[in-house]
Amino acid sequence: MKLFFLCLCLVLTSTCFAKKVEYYKCVTERGVMYSQFPCGSNAIAQRLEHQDPDVAVPDDQHTKLLNALERKQIIHTLERKIRASKQKVAILDRERDRAKQKALDKLERMMSDQEKRQMTRDVKSELQQIDKQYMRNLKEVSKNLLELEKQLKKFSK
C-alpha cells in the first residue's frame, strides 16, 4: 500500500504540469503496483488527466447552456401540462355524457302519465344542472389551458 502511494506521488509530482499522464497498473504476487513504465506483460495502461487550476472556465457559456437546458425542461413541463388539461377536458366530456345518459334512462322506466310528466321535468332540471356544472369546469380548464399555451409560446421563441 505504501508502495502504491509512493509510486502514485512520484507519477503526480514528476508530471504535475502535463495535461495527460500515462501510467501502468501491474498485479504481482506482492499486490498491485503502479509505475510510469510497464512492469511486466500483464501491465494495464491507464491515463491520468490533469487540468490546470489557474485556467478560468468561461461562465457565460455555462449560463447559456444552463438556460437552454432549463428552457427545454420548462417547455417539456408545459407540454405535459397542456396534454393533461386536454385529457381533463375529455374526461369532463365523458362524465357529462354519462350523467346525461343516466338522467335520460330514468325516462325509459315504466310509469304512469302523471309520474312521467313529473319525471320529465326533473330530468330536464337535472340536465340543466349537469350542463351548468360542465360549463363551469370547462371554463376553468380552458382558462388554464390558454395560460399554459401562452407560456409555451413565450418559451418556444
TrEMBL record:
Coiled-coil spans in chain: 75-102
Record's keyword terms, sorted: Coiled coil, Signal
Domain of life: Bacteria
Signal peptide: 1-18
Protein name: DUF4124 domain-containing protein
Organism from which the protein derives: Pseudoalteromonas xiamenensis
